[in-house]
Amino acid sequence: MKLTTRGRYAVMAMADLALFKDKGPTSLTDISLRQNISLAYLEQIFIKLKDKNLVKSIRGAKGGYVLEFEPEDIKISNIIDAVDEEVKMLNCKKESKKGCNNKSSKCITHNLWDQLDQHINNFFEKVKLQDLVKNSK
User: Based on the structure, what is the number of domains in the chain?
Assistant: First the structure.
């Protein structure tokens, strides 16, 4: 399965924001320490999350980041998409004329992996950020 640390860390960081949302803006340093994620890496992730309007930054001494929406309104798929990730089991492109492995037809297991992609992506569509927070308490 191809889901890089960027996608996993983005979900972890957003779950952290959701968990501590009642305490006001959260600094990336706090998230970094709690989730054991490099601060520099979090900064890159939050640029993308902010560009996709999933978080907003608050300036000032007590500043940091807050969620743009309530945790029950943010799907895990939104987070993964925001950081330009995709969950993909297939090495080939579905619409490729070359088929799998640069051959003229699809490999014998193509449909199996394609169906697994669909199941995983449907799962991420159904799970909300609130579900992660609720299950972590």
Answer: 1
